[in-house]
Amino acid sequence: MGEKNIRILLIEDNSGDARLIQEMLTEEVDSPFTLECAGSLAEGLERLDKTDFDVVLSDLGLPDSSGLETFSK
């Protein structure tokens, strides 16, 4: 049986940073993965309500949340 596909949600409002993170993951992660991006915390939470992810990576400086406040939502 093959390796499990890792589902990653990236919450990042800067498309350039999102692209860099995707490139880094492609170079460093040996397992197959799927990366979905959300541009705001609200969009990320909406995706989390609809889909199961194995990993969530989040910018702590988003248009609708910042810092540790992000974790209390």
Protein model, in words:
- The chain has 73 residues and is of the alpha/beta class.
- It has a single domain (6-72), classed as Rossmann fold.
- The protein is 33% helix and 27% strand.
- It is built from two helices and five strands.
- The protein has helices spanning 15-28, 41-50; strands spanning 6-11, 33-38, 55-58, 61-62, 65-66.
- The strands form two sheets. A three-stranded parallel beta sheet has the order 2-1-3. Strands 4-5 form a two-stranded antiparallel sheet.
- The chain starts with 5 loop residues before the first strand and ends in a 7-residue tail after the last strand.
- The mean pLDDT is 91.
Summary of the model, kept short:
This protein has 73 residues and is an alpha/beta fold.
Shape: globular
What's the structural domain tally? 1
Unreliable stretches: none
Structural class: alpha/beta
Question: Using only CA atoms, what is the Rg?
Answer: 13 Å
Distance separating the two termini: 38 Å
Record the SSE blueprint.
Blueprint: E1 6-11, H1 15-28, E2 33-38, H2 41-50, E3 55-58, E4 61-62, E5 65-66
Parallel strand pairs: 1-2, 1-3
Antiparallel strand pairs: 4-5
